[in-house]
Amino acid sequence: MSIALLKRLNQSLPDPVQIAFAPLIRKKLVCDDVFIAQMDELHDRDIRTDEEIKERQFQKLKETLLHAYRHTSYYRQLFDKVGFRPDRFASFEDIKKIPLLTKDQIRENFDGLRADDRNDHYVGETGGSTGQPLKVLLGRDSIYREKAFIYHFWEKFGYDRDKSRIATFRGVDLKGKLSKVNPLYNEVLLNPFILSDANVQRYVDRIEQFGADLLHGYPSALSDLCRLMDKHHIRLSRPLKAVFLISEACSDQQRRLIEGVLGCRAVSFYGHTERAVFAEECSRDGNYRFDPYYGHTEIVEHENGNIVCTGFINPQFPLIRYAVDDRAVKDADGTYKITGHHTAAALLGKNGEHITQTALNFHDATFSKTTGYQFYQEIPGYVQCRVQAAEKLGITDLNDIKRGLSRKCGDCIEWDVVQVDHFELTKRGKLKTIIQKM
Fold it and tell me: CB–CB of 342/247 below 8 Å?
């Protein structure tokens, strides 16, 4: 059974059935051959010299370039056009002969980027932080490899994949419920959309009832939890090992609050749905180190420090010299300060709920008829959703979007959905998904 199918079944099964089959569901992930092989390679790397690691990274890069040339029409045509010969690839510098790959080029050449030697995949979609999601193909094996990199990082802070239990705050549709057990990842999912003064104690009780020894989720949601815990003088009865932050940039103020209330280290990693780059936070000042076995990462100075990545773990849909929106600056110790990653922009609910931009990810049909969307708010609990589309949308289409938004966020926000010709831009001409006027 593929993990993509397993994830769908895991999400649809009733809670009692999930709990009854929890060990079997979990085993499908942590006992998978691909997952184990990737974990073994990472543990082996921990004892290798820098020179050996660099040599292995170069080998992985060359294998990626050769595979892309042999099995995708896009790279075969591109390499021939610019005179790039992957069989003669001799140094990391040689990759600069290949033009950068943009999001628009991925959209325009989707079929040409698909490898013809494998067909076990599903469609992944980014959260659309600029209002226009990007679709990629994700191979089954890449899911197991990705999870191995994450777990290897978490192990440094006390995570045990056989024993640890996690409480997670992220934008999963729980249909108004406070929590839901997810055996696949040995976690309890907690609803960030309904957290408030009135129910913060219920969240803390659920964390302790589940026996979580780690917390995981959006910095904005976790800092909101800690703010309410501090306000009401609530503390966990048992210490946590660590807090793992995902998807958003974390401010110094948020980190101090989270670590102060929960009494443990808060750390994060940097990555994307596209699975082309992975970086571990490696210092107290928030610097990162890019993982050399996950991919090859360049910082292109003439593009203002743009992060350009070539991923190794998803040969189903190879992304070579993929220029992401984020930027990095190298420090003297060889680590990087990453900027431009997801911000913690949020909508404000009627009862003080904070609904972050990253929580507002839509992987269903809510915006299937649109080319982009933007949220505009001036009053707590009331939001205008502005959409663009190739054709005029009818009342039924707008109401379908409204229902999708309500399903995601519950009744803490009243929505007004309108079609517009242009989105509001920043002074620098950039598009923001959330325009907050309060």
Answer: yes
